[in-house]
Structures are given as C-alpha cells and as structure tokens.
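Run folding on both entries below.
>entry_1
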Amino acid sequence: MPDMLVKLYELPGSSELLKDLAKEKIRIHRALAPDKERILNWVGEHSTAGAKSEADVCFANQPVSLFLATKGREILGFACYNTTAKNFFGPTHVLKSMRGKGIGKALLLASLEALKAEGYAYAIIGGAGPTEYYQKAVGATVIEGSTPGIYRDYLGSGLVFDDE
C-alpha cells in the first residue's frame, strides 16, 4: 500500500460534519491518558496488533496524538498521528456498524488539523489502504515508489524482499 501526501493548507472544513455527528450524540475528541488501557484494549479487539502498538505510542506524545469517536462512553472509532513517524497519519478504524456516517472522515480531519496546528504544511498518510477514499476526502495524492516505505522493516507486514 502506498503512502499519500495531503496539502494541509487545502483541507476541507469540518464544522458541518461535526455538527451532523453531534446531532447523533457522536463526539470527536482527543484521548485522555487515564483511558489508555481501555483504548488500547479496544484497538486490539477491533483492529490489528500493529495498530494497537502504534496507538500505544500516541500516549507518549504531548498532547496525546490519538482522536476518538465516542457516543456516551462507547468507543466507535479512533485515529492516530505522529506514531511510526512524525507527520504521519494512521492507523485509523471505525466500527463496521458505524461506517457511512462520516466518523472516519471526522477523525481524519481532526488528526490532519492537529498536524497543521503543529506547523506542518503537508502530511503523509502512511500505507494508505483505500487510496480513492483519501483522494476524495482530503485531496490526497499517491507518493510514487512509497511501498513499502517506512514499513519495510515491520516484522508483521508479510512483505517479501529480494534478499530473503
């Protein structure tokens, strides 16, 4: 899966999307350190071991670089940034039962807006799965020759190299 580049200075607005989610009592907010174990357990249950490891890194950052989608005390999804590398977005995941509501896009925008607030002009979506989704959502473009990129030494990747 290739990496993708996003122009942070051309992000779409998120206020209408957040208002629509709020009508359904869905909030997008930064994770809090006291919730670390609960969040990591949720990520491990609903995503991958690699995603759980990356989410763990978020809690070492100040501020915590993980956003949540919640309804009451129920976690609906998450998104990380600044985990495997600075200025990288991902991983992210939304419960299948909650997809199609704009939660994933709201988490993506919250993360990219945070990177923009840190002073970046561009962000990288690492190992982007659904490239068409990211192109449509935030105008991301594929970075040619970026597979496997920074993840080449990831032991859980299943990638095969010429020297193996």
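>entry_2
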Amino acid sequence: MAVDSSVAPVIIKRKKVSGGDGHHGGAWKVAYADFVTAMMAFFMLMWLLNATTEKQRKGLADYFSPTIAISRVSGGGDGSLGGDSIFSENTLPRVGTGATSLRPTSQHAARGASDPGEADETGAQDEALEAVEDLLMGRGGESMISDTLMRHIVTRVTDEGLVVELFATEEAPLFDAQGAPTELLRALSGVIAGVSDMVTNPLAIEGHVGAYPIVLARDPSWEVSTRHADRFRELLLADGLSKARINRVTAHADREPAKNNPMDPRNTRLEIIFLRS
C-alpha cells in the first residue's frame, strides 16, 4: 500500500520541567526575617547599654526581677553595712533610706528601724499620712473638700513627710493686694486643720512667692513670703490647731519657683509639711 506523501509528519516534543530550581520554596524568607529581627534587637540592646547609666540599668533589672529583694538597700554584703560604703551620709540618702548631711543620725537610725516595734510604728505612721493624702485628693471616693478647693491642692510624699501644697492662680489668689488672706485661703486653712486631727505629726509651714519685676528698687519677696507663712499659721491656730504642733515657719521668697516663669502666679504658694516623727 502506498504512503500518502502529502500528509505532514507528527512530531512530539517532550520538555523536561524541573520544579523549584529558581527559589527552592519560601522557607529561606522566614529564616532571613528571623535573622534581621535578631540583629535589630541586638543593635538596640547595644545602643541602650551605651545610652543608659549604671543606675538606670539596675532599675530596669530590678523591675523585671521575678523576686523581691529582702533588703531595701542593694549591695553585695549582708553585714552591718549591707554592701554600702561606711559613709552613710553619702550613700543612704541617694537610695532613699537614710539621713542627710543637715540632719545626721547614728548608723542604725540612718539605715532605718531595726527594732520590730519601731518598724511597726513607722509603718503605721506612713499609713496615717497616706490616709490624709487620700482624703485630701478624694482617691477613696470620699473627699472632704469641693472640686474648687481641690484645684489648689497638690500633695507629695517625701523623706521629710507629707507635703501639702496650696497654690494660687491668676483668677484665684491666696492673698489680696493688701496681704490679707482671701476666702479661698481661709477655706483651705479649715481643710488642713480638719485633716490634721487624723494624725499627731508636727507641722512645718513654708511660704513661697513669685518673682517681682526687676524695676523695683527693693525686692519685697522675703518679707512677703514671711508674712504669708505667718498669716497662715495664725489661720491654722484660729481653726483649732494646737500651737505645740507647729514645728517651724519658713520663708523661701522666690528662690524655689514651681514654674519656669519666675513671675507665674503659680509660684505663690504655701507648703504645709506633716513631718515624720
């Protein structure tokens, strides 16, 4: 039988396909991302170690520590000094557990209460001061003062005791132009005298004023701050506070402003300190 030569022959081509030769899948991308993340974390750690001080690094380490230190003072020793220098006046005030150069104490007193009875008394005193602060600021849901008066009160706890700051504003001064106490200050005095009955701590009164214009021939800031502190002392006595509880009355003039602007009315303030006994 003859073959038809007019029909084109069928040619079959077989193409070999190799899969994944170009990129071998996506697993390498995950590994590379982990590597970049680790390097970024490493360089951030190096930067933080270089940018922080030893004290800051220790604070961070203590924050993330899962245990609570038994001693309030960090140190490598467990002896009488607890790892600190023998110069307790230089070391202990810095860590917040000791005296200052203005009020030096003996070693055991500078390091805190060692007698269990003394420690209990200190703890009870701190709780009483915190109760006074909570009552003034209305933190427990109860407040003996109105919102208007509360806007003029700032409290803070220091090594010296509970500091209650009464400050003036441009709209509501504490003293009038003649230096007499305003109704606002009289109301605040009643509040301080009322909460002072909750504790037996002695009180210190400190007067501060804003700066006066430099064009004045005589700067009256010392006399005015002294008069303010003494007038508030008289108000407290009139409101029933025992004069035996007033430990000192101090004037600071304009030397310790609360605001950067020395003439800001906020700098005119009174500080009443419930001293630790």
